[in-house]
Write a structure and sequence with these properties.
A hairpin with a 2-residue loop joins β1 and β2. The protein has three helices and four strands, in the order ββαββαα. 39% of the residues lie in helices and 27% in strands.
Length: 98
């Protein structure tokens, strides 16, 4: 996450949705060089004239919305794993993966 002259940037789509729900104006999507991995990554940019994006990010990280999204993604991965290369009618047991 980066903050530049009233512009807030994030690569988190979930945080972007939360910022939009809290009335920060979405400016667009761009790519940025990740100096650690030397690869390009997507960055979502928001106008932050009141300088509240960092506070909203902190609130998001502790919110029920974030917990819901994490669990939702987890269960979607489980469903995709269970249905990949499986026949209809088979039971998928997380404890006894085959």
């Amino acid at each position: 996450m980066k903050i530049n002259n009233k512009i807030f940037e994030t690569d988190s789509v979930d945080l972007a949705a939360y910022l939009t729900m809290n009335d920060l104006r979405y400016l667009g999507y761009t790519t940025d060089l990740d100096s650690l991995n030397e690869r390009y990554k997507g960055v979502l940019r928001f106008e932050d004239p009141r300088g509240i994006a960092k506070d909203l990010e902190r609130a998001f990280l502790n919110s029920d919305y974030k917990k819901y999204r994490d669990l939702n993604k987890y269960f979607l991965r489980e469903v995709h794993k269970a249905t990949k290369n499986k026949n209809f009618g088979e039971t998928y047991d997380k404890q006894n993966r085959s």
